[in-house]
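re the bet — no i am not wrong, look at it urself. input seq straight from the record:
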Amino acid sequence: MKAVPKVDANGLYIEDVIQDDTFSGIVPFYTDPTDTESSVVSYLIGTAVPSGLYQPKWDLDNEQWVEGLTQAEIDGLKELSNSQPTTNLTQMQQELTNTQLALADTFEQLATSQQETTNLQLAVADLYEQLTSVTSAQGGGK
């Protein structure tokens, strides 16, 4: 068994389908399988798609694979693929920096809160000590 390219009526690649190893040539598929005079909807092509094509297209007249996109379309894809990752990377780096700054700010607030809690605990301990000494001086609070 082998993968064989399937193309639409215009020759544009659709997908690979599994066929017997001996498959070769070009086999049309019609809108009405019992009537070969009906419209062709797709073809199976016995020649593998070569690498390097952005949009593989089977040239039905010359029986060969060609590029289905124009040079302008290919250039647009290349430009998009070159600029988009940089944009995404830049955006992700900025988000990471913002997250790191927010995390640092949160840690700073936590440290401040911990210091304030420690100061309050010391103040309460000091007040407790003062209250205990006043109570002791008055004769044990009796």
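see?? The first helix runs from residue 71 to 137. told u. also The longest strand covers residues 2-8. so pay up
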